[in-house]
Amino acid sequence: MEKFTPFESRMVAIPRDNIDTDQIIPARFLKTISKVGLGDQLFCDWRYDAEGKPKPDFVLNKPEAKACQVLLAGDNFGCGSSREHAPWALTQYGFRAVISTSFADIFKGNSLKNSLLPIVVPPDVHAELLKNPAGAVKVDLASQTLTTPSGRKVQFPVDDFAKHCLLEGIDELGYILKQEPAIAAFEAAHPAGIDTRT
Amino acid sequence: MKPRTIIEKIWDSHVVAERPNAPTLLYIDLHLVHEVTSPQAFDGLRARGLKVRRPDLTIATTDHSTPTTPRGFPIVDTVAKAQVEKLIQNCKDYGIHCYPLGSDKQGIVHVIGPELGLTQPGMTVVCGDSHTATHGALGALAIGIGTSEVENTLATQCLLLKRSKTYQVRVDGALKPGVSAKDIILALIARIGIGGGTGSIFEYCGSAIRSLSMEERMTVCNMSIEGGARAGLVAPDDTTYQYVAGREFAPKGAAWDQAVARWRQLPTDDGAAYDKSIMIDAAALEPMITFGTNPGMGIPIRGVVPNPSDITDPLERDSLKSALAYMDLPAGQPLLGHAINVVFIGSCTNSRISDLRIAASVLKGRKVHPGVRVLVVPGSQQVKEQAQAEGLDQIFRDAGADWREAGCSMCIAMNGDQLQPGEYSVSTSNRNFEGRQGKGARTFLASPMTAAASAISGKVSDVRELL
């Protein structure tokens, strides 16, 4: 994982509540055995018409959406399926952060493991951002600060451990592997009740 | 000792390590693997040169991208075929037991886990699938995870998790005829919304839950994620022990007695506190159906579709507006009598033998409406065999329904079973998101009884008229 560094970007807004992972990337694209090449399929059914042509009125197809690294979305973003293809598609498109008033649990966990920062803001800040949905924001994870287009600095919550992993560019597995003695001790004290291979 | 909920008891007994400024390292007793969310995890192991730590606690099957056409047929979708073959190869490479296509024990991962006796009370269970909470019906803490966590579990049999809030869902009273477990969970989600349980784990309790069979409890727990919860479970009782006893991987002999004695310690202690609670009166419930594009958009079968102009929050109002536009439904009108094209009876929510029995009891001696295509898809090959032994397949066929092989089928529409754009279904599955059952598909979620009644009339129907 790359280290998560501070950045400034304009936002692109999809102001809908409960955007589920089937919208972020439809299930028919989950037959892949690869992690890459999913950016083009992001929001596929909102983004392209029946012939596969970009719909001009969908926000990601507008010229000003190009190079935007921050998605502004409605409440409970990422609900539904546990597919990690959702944050893969978002990051491969170019997003580094999603701003919402809340995120679904599994999506949030998956995002943090893929250098995609879920930024939770209170409803008043969210409403302010929606008034200038193409405005530029600054994201600084180290200080947990979002600077809105009007210059207002807003603190956002991040789990300490996830923050450490993002800033240092380390993944969880390396950390867990270092706890091998504790895992072995647990296993010795708790013999398994099943053996799936018998 | 402070009184604890079953959620806290299972959690506490699986803590491997707790370090400052880090989530808890939790041990996983059972890891279920399927073809869709695992290939990239196995690639991760390869890249690091790691082995699967506990193949003996890991089991695999193919279900999501698996066709439900006769098993002798090839998989015509080459991308799906490659994914199914990849799972089989990965299992071979890493010594994991797999029930592949063609196995008499293949099926939807959340159907076969309990069916084989692999899922047991007090266990921690994970799977790269959000409907893993199904296993909570047996009194297990069962959590849906993404592919990174699949990789972590394969490599270490552990996950880093933060403790969730505890959320008591108390359902008391007796269900009326025509009202089922599916209606309990749809009613709960309609009340709290699809984000209502975010950050929480549900414990379902109360007399109505106690009266449910194991398979009905699975239906309830299955859709915990649709209420936003990380997991959902029911404390084990005699119903649970009777269900588990004698199954292939269940403890036997003296080990069984010891296990039951241990499991009897699991239920929530008197006086234990929950972070949140909700009460539902089972006797007041009606058959439920969804009208919109998320499972929280549900109404009683004789209710009316809500009106966006009654909602003050602008984003909420817009969400309802766009849902009704997608579904092409007028606000303020009843859904009852709305014409449908397809009925799907299946999925990890409602594809077990009791679901098929109840659907068959409605369809027996009746005919499916000529304009409607009906798919009945058993959750596993074992369910299929059982149904055939009872003659249920013949009832479905005689009625004019299509009887299929086991798999996720039209719940996820990545295996060839899907709606055409604009078509309406009454579906016993768990999600009515835009495009979930195929691009442009429109889904009404309901119980197997409601689905069977609607299959006969060709429109959204109240099963109670047939009882």
The total count of strands of chain A amounts to 7
Helix-strand sequence of chain A: EHHEHEHEHEEEHHH
N→C terminal distance of chain A: 38 Å
- Model regions low in confidence, pLDDT < 50 over at least 5 residues of chain B: none
* Gross geometry of chain B: globular
What number is the mean pLDDT of chain B? 97
Strand content of chain B: 15-25%
Largest beta sheet: strand ordering of chain A: 4-3-2-1-5-6-7
Task: Give the averaged pLDDT of chain A, no decimals.
Answer: 97
The structural class of chain B is alpha/beta
User: In what order do the strands lie side by side in the largest sheet of chain B?
Assistant: 5-4-3-6-7
Main sheet of chain A?
A: 7 strands, mixed
The span between the termini of chain B is 51 Å
Q: Tell me the Rg of chain B in angstroms.
A: 21 Å
| Strands of chain B, total number | 19
Cα Rg of chain A: 19 Å
Unreliable segments of 5+ consecutive residues of chain A: none
* Fraction in helix of chain B: 25-40%
Beta-strand share of residues of chain A: 15-25%
Helix content of chain A: 25-40%
Can you tell me about this structure?
The complex is a heterodimer of chains A (198) and B (467). Chain A is of the alpha/beta class and 198 residues long. Chain A has 8 helices and 7 strands; from the N terminus they run E-H-H-E-H-E-H-E-H-E-E-E-H-H-H. The longest helix of chain A is centred in the C-terminal third of the chain and has 10 residues, at 180-189. Chain B is of the alpha/beta class. Helix content of chain B is 31%, strand content 17%. Chain B is built from 15 helices and 19 strands. Chain B has helices at residues 6-12, 39-48, 78-94, 109-115, 147-156, 181-192, 207-210, 214-222, 238-244, 254-263, 314-327, 353-363, 381-389, 392-399, 448-457; strands at 15-17, 24-27, 30-33, 58-61, 97-99, 124-127, 141-144, 158-161, 165-172, 200-205, 231-234, 276-281, 288-290, 298-300, 342-345, 373-376, 402-403, 424-427, 442-445. A 5-stranded parallel sheet of chain B has the order 5-4-3-6-7. Chain B has a 5-stranded parallel sheet with strand order 17-16-15-18-19. Chain B is globular and about 55 Å long. At the A-B interface, helix 4, helix 6, helix 7 and helix 8 of A face helix 2, helix 3, helix 5 and helix 11 of B.
